[in-house]
Design goal:
Strand 20 and strand 21 form a beta hairpin. The strands form four sheets. Strands 1-2-3-12-13-14-15-16 form an eight-stranded parallel barrel, surrounded by six helices. Strands 6-5-9-8-7-11 form a six-stranded mixed sheet, with no helix packed on it. The chain is an alpha/beta fold. The chain is elongated and about 80 Å long. The chain is built from 17 helices and 21 strands. The chain folds into three domains: 230 residues, Alpha-Beta Barrel (TIM Barrel); 77 residues, M1 Pyruvate Kinase, Domain 3 (Beta Barrel); 120 residues, 3-Layer(aba) Sandwich (Pyruvate Kinase, Chain: A, domain 1), CATH 3.40.1380.20.
């Protein structure tokens, strides 16, 4: 199941994509990783989808990644006596801890942690920023605010507080239950919402206990202020542009996106661009040209993966959305400019043997016009180091660990292959010949092609990448 592209596709499953037939079609259309959104659906729904994915994986004989997305805290208004009210610019409005239905003068906001954190001058965004308030009076029980941007507010609308770190755990009781269930199903990645500071990631890691990789969703400006430490603590990042765009001015979001792609590549950690990528395809069979350009820009910038949300989970054209995204990625990657940009933005290698080997692998691949690079890895680190270099030839990552093979499905250019080889003491020529044979079998090489191999000696010891070998296919 070779993909003719290097950037990956993540697709969310939901009501529009819950049958085995549709999930198989999505995979064949180009999905590399399936996202399970635990904000919606029952545990039984998610279990059924995991079982289907694993059946398809076995049938096709290629690893498939599964990402579970935990919900995180949801800050919402309460209800209204007449379900909604209209606020005009300049109005004064009160929010408080009284659970009684709201009216034209006040509304319930049953989150004491918000009142504890807000001060005069703080801003609140309601309904994804459609209504904006500025606090003029604050206590631990209520606040009074001036309406800066008017509009309708209604039952259970979401509330965002830009620039304020709330004194709460970002892992709710629901998240803890969902997390343990998802891990019991064998998910490969856990996406963490609402991250504000490094301790939030540390808390999740203590719960996951190494059973899955952690992908931090960058949604909060406070997380950007702690980016270096958060990036060090996680295994990958998702640029969640919907929530990020509520709390940041829209003109700043593209700059942040490029910064996150660049820093994740420097760290050798996968980065996924998400939200509204082909949003019009929820109900229309073709994307806007602006949406196609949005996907293309992420690929030119070097993102590891792009993601579909409602398009594949609840839209009218889930398979077509994946097909279109696959075509956009393929066309961009054929443009010589795309590789030139990736080469120009290549980060400097660290002063380690593994980085030196993978940096050389990229250069040798280019000089010899190799059709494939091959990495042997037991932890995934060699494959990710090679992916950071963005070589012109795809990366066959050979691993004896099925969990690592699935984990690598989100990484740029990596084609994971599960192998059964001896660990320590394997003969070097056996390793080289196996790499050539697999490159041919997986349709990455043919007679006369050069295959560039990175591995570690003694073979099978994690973290010992120290070998670069050029092999020619017989």
């Amino acid at each position: 199941m070779r993909r003719n592209r290097k950037a990956k596709i993540v697709a969310t499953l939901g009501p529009a994509s819950s049958t085995e037939t549709t999930i198989r079609e999505l995979y064949l259309a180009g999905v590399d990783v399936f996202r399970l959104n635990f904000s919606h659906g029952s545990h039984e729904d998610h279990r059924d989808r995991v079982e289907i994915i694993r059946r398809i994986e076995k049938e096709i004989g290629h690893p498939i990644g599964i990402l579970m997305d935990i919900q995180g805290p949801k800050l919402r208004l309460g209800t209204f006596r007449h379900h909604s009210v209209e606020l005009a610019k300049g109005d004064t409005y009160r929010l408080d801890l009284d659970a009684s239905p709201g009216d034209d003068h006040r509304a319930p906001l049953l989150h004491p942690e918000i009142f504890a954190a807000l001060t005069v001058g703080s801003e609140l965004m309601i309904d994804d920023g459609r209504v904006k308030l500025e606090v003029t009076e604050s206590s631990d029980q209520h606040l009074v605010a001036k309406v800066l941007v008017g509009g309708s507010i209604s039952d259970n609308k979401g509330v965002n507080i830009p620039g304020v770190v709330l004194p709460i755990s970002v892992i709710t009781e629901k998240d803890r239950i969902d997390l343990q269930y998802g891990l019991s199903l064998g998910v490969d990645w856990v996406a963490q919402s609402f991250v504000q500071q490094p301790d939030d990631v540390r808390e999740l890691r203590s719960l996951v206990k190494g059973r899955a990789a952690i992908m931090v969703k960058m949604e909060k400006p406070s997380a950007l202020e702690n980016l270096d430490e958060i990036l060090e603590l996680c295994d990958g990042m998702m640029v969640a542009r919907g929530d990020l765009g509520v709390e940041l001015p829209p003109e700043k979001v593209p700059i942040v996106q490029k910064r996150l792609i660049r820093q994740c590549r420097q760290a050798g950690k996968p980065v996924v661009i998400a939200t509204h990528m082909l949003d019009s395809m929820v109900h229309v069979p073709v994307p806007t040209r602006a949406e196609a350009s949005d996907v293309a820009t992420a690929i030119y910038d070097g993102a590891d993966a792009v993601m579909l949300s409602a398009e594949s989970a609840a839209g009218d054209y889930p398979v077509r959305s994946v097909t279109i995204m696959n075509k956009i990625i393929f066309e961009v990657e054929q443009d010589p400019l795309a590789q030139n940009i990736l080469d120009a933005q290549r980060p400097d290698p660290n002063a380690t043997t593994a980085d030196a080997i993978c940096n050389a692998l990229q250069k040798v691949t280019h000089v010899l016009s190799s059709t494939a690079t091959v990495t042997y890895t037991s932890s995934g680190s060699t494959a990710l180091r090679a992916a950071r270099e963005r070589p012109r030839a795809p990366i066959l990552s050979l691993t004896p660990e099925i969990g690592i093979a699935r984990y690598l499905c989100v990484a740029w250019g990596v084609h994971p292959v599960l192998i059964d080889v001896a660990s320590q003491g394997a003969d070097l020529m056996e390793v080289i010949n196996a790499a050539k044979d697999i490159a041919v079998k997986e349709n990455f090489a043919k007679s006369g092609d050069a295959v560039i191999i990175a591995a570690g000696l003694p073979f099978g010891i994690s973290g010992t990448t120290n070998l670069l070998h050029i092999a020619w296919v017989d």
